[in-house]
Amino acid sequence: MSRRAVPDRRPVALTVAGSDSGGGAGIQADLKTMEAHGVFGTSAITSVTAQHTRGVESTHVLPVEEVDAQLTAVRGDFDVAAVKTGMLATTPVVERVTTRLGEWEVPSVVDPVMVATSGDRLLEPEAEAAYEALVREATLVTPNADEAEVLTGVAVEDETAMREAGEALVEMGADAALVKGGHVDTEGVIDLLVTEGASHRFESPRVDTAATHGSGCTLSSAIAANLAGGASLVEAVEAGVTFMRRAVRYPLDVGEGPGSVHHLVALRDRAARHATSEAVEGVVDRLVGEEKSRVIVPEVGLNVVGATPYAEETEDVAAVEGRITRTVGGVRPNRGVRFGASSHVARFLLSVREFVPTYRFAANCRYDARVRAALDDLGWRVASFDRGNEPTPEEEASTMGWGAARAFETGDDGDGDEPPVAVVDEGDVGKEPMTRVLAADAETLGDRLLELAAVTGEQ
């Protein structure tokens, strides 16, 4: 007996762009990104490039009739809910795509691909003028600083110029413009969404990496996918920028060049949530099963936290809701494990990961003379920071970031190859002293906590 098929209906998006044989940009990046957003991706290939992470070796542009045939085939069969354009290469292709977008009543994201990240040119100079008509058909145009200058004549060197360029693109006819600030000399990366009469500013920490191959394609595809899923323009852009923060923070180490952004990073991270939560529960069960563990529980309670592999915020960190407290016969968790249940320990772990990205699990333990003696006996590499020297924080998050930086930049970790496995916080007025134990995996964290409890109990 054959099984019954259960179709999965998803929104459809179309990318009109060039192929990247290196897989990091172009059609390949677009389709991966759309799939990561739960959108079925279709494509019309405008050109075939021989490229990799170090540059573009050659380019072959398809006849405009072949590009148009692909557009006709896709539109004739699929209910396309959003379109994005990337590398269009020549004037005839730009003009044909402009005509088709004018005929279709679907949201369109125009990424004016002119030069590759490597510096190789992907659009013939005479085709730049043809983009003016394409911009008029765009729901959103997403130029970087260089592309915005080509399209508007505005030299984009600061946020004021970004706004000016965005307003010029809207005056040209685009519904909105997202001027990307990755190439603009600002402390953080500023992306500015300009619509008629309004603007929205998105700021992200600047990541120290050259592995940004495919970033423009990936962002525009993420926005198009969100539009296809029914998001408003502002919602789609905000979701796309958030998606890109993680994709750039955790790039793919592929090829001999700088590497590529991680198109599936958010999908991979979501897939790891259940295993991360279970791992935290496993550590908690080990503590509950060992009576001696009560000696390392601080007055404020102990928490065990675990970050997903690509964690960016406390909502990506699983923890015990209400922490773990001491009982007469041992310890018990107040409630279960859930994501976002910890602020203090989770933020410390996320801050530590800026220095040791392999650390995914942590716990806050008691710190007193007995624990200090136990740490000496164990011979662990221990770092520390003194809260008496901390700046006045506006929020606890800054305190944890400052403490991690002090411990891992100037602490007692020396110049050895192994990072500290514990960080001692001496406390301050109204702030309990604390030992924070760290590990790359849950089993190691559990081992360290039970070992610390056993040795502390002997003091």
From TrEMBL:
- GO biological process: any one? thiamine biosynthetic process
CDD domains from the entry?
HMPP_kinase
Q: Which residues belong to any copy of the Thiamine-phosphate synthase ThiN domain? A: 280-449
Task: Spell out the residue ranges making up region: Disordered.
Answer: 1-25, 406-429
| Bias kind Basic and acidic residues: ranges | 1-11
Q: Where is the Pyridoxamine kinase/Phosphomethylpyrimidine kinase domain?
A: 20-262
The protein depicted here goes by the name: Bifunctional hydroxymethylpyrimidine kinase/phosphomethylpyrimidine kinase
